[in-house]
């Protein structure tokens, strides 16, 4: 991982993000995202920061939708620490540790988020989710919507995110 000159931490939308990237990926896209963070003065670390409890929010994006339980180290310990922290967690697409179809189940090594933003469409695992739920991305092709009789939400104006009141498309 290439290191760049030390700069002040970047601020985005009033936040000073800090990325925890516990296991380096062989994926070129992921490698490029790490470089983008580093060149933008966003810290990228392999472990949780020592001052972890000073963060106002955790954005959960440890795994992709192809994740298959069970969770393994170092992720198991990260998830346990996040759960014990009491810090609000906002999960992207699927909360970490959840099965994409079955959900969280009774596992203790899963994230229990305060809110979720599904990308493109809610996944099956979100069918029983009752917390705040948002949908991001209004780019589902019309043919796919018609073919599967999807009930897409109405996005106000040019918004890219909409809050879902209930999920009736699953």
From TrEMBL:
<feature type="domain" description="YjeF N-terminal">
    <location>
        <begin position="1"/>
        <end position="152"/>
    </location>
</feature>
<dbReference type="InterPro" id="IPR032976">
    <property type="entry name" value="YJEFN_prot_NAXE-like"/>
</dbReference>
<dbReference type="InterPro" id="IPR036652">
    <property type="entry name" value="YjeF_N_dom_sf"/>
</dbReference>
<keyword id="KW-0630">Potassium</keyword>
<dbReference type="Pfam" id="PF03853">
    <property type="entry name" value="YjeF_N"/>
</dbReference>
<dbReference type="InterPro" id="IPR004443">
    <property type="entry name" value="YjeF_N_dom"/>
</dbReference>
<dbReference type="GO" id="GO:0005739">
    <property type="term" value="C:mitochondrion"/>
</dbReference>
<protein>
    <recommendedName>
        <fullName>NAD(P)H-hydrate epimerase</fullName>
        <ecNumber>5.1.99.6</ecNumber>
    </recommendedName>
</protein>
<keyword id="KW-0413">Isomerase</keyword>
<keyword id="KW-0547">Nucleotide-binding</keyword>
<dbReference type="GO" id="GO:0046872">
    <property type="term" value="F:metal ion binding"/>
</dbReference>
<keyword id="KW-0479">Metal-binding</keyword>
<dbReference type="GO" id="GO:0052856">
    <property type="term" value="F:NAD(P)HX epimerase activity"/>
</dbReference>
<keyword id="KW-0520">NAD</keyword>
<dbReference type="GO" id="GO:0000166">
    <property type="term" value="F:nucleotide binding"/>
</dbReference>
<keyword id="KW-0521">NADP</keyword>
């Amino acid at each position: 991982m290439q290191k760049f000159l030390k700069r002040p931490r970047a601020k985005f939308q009033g936040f000073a993000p800090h990325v925890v990237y516990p296991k380096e990926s062989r994926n070129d896209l992921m490698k490029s995202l790490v470089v983008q963070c580093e060149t933008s003065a966003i810290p990228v670390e392999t472990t949780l920061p020592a001052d972890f409890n000073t963060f106002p929010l955790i954005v959960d994006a440890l795994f992709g939708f192809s994740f298959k339980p069970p969770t393994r180290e170092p992720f198991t310990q990260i998830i346990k620490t996040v759960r014990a922290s009491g810090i609000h967690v906002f999960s992207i697409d699927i909360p970490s540790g959840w099965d994409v179809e079955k959900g969280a189940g009774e596992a203790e090594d899963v994230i229990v988020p305060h809110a979720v933003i599904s990308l493109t469409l809610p996944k099956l695992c979100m069918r029983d989710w009752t917390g705040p739920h948002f949908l991001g991305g209004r780019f589902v092709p019309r043919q796919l919507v018609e073919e599967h009789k999807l009930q897409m939400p109405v996005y106000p104006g040019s918004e890219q995110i909409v809050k879902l009141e209930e999920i009736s498309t699953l």
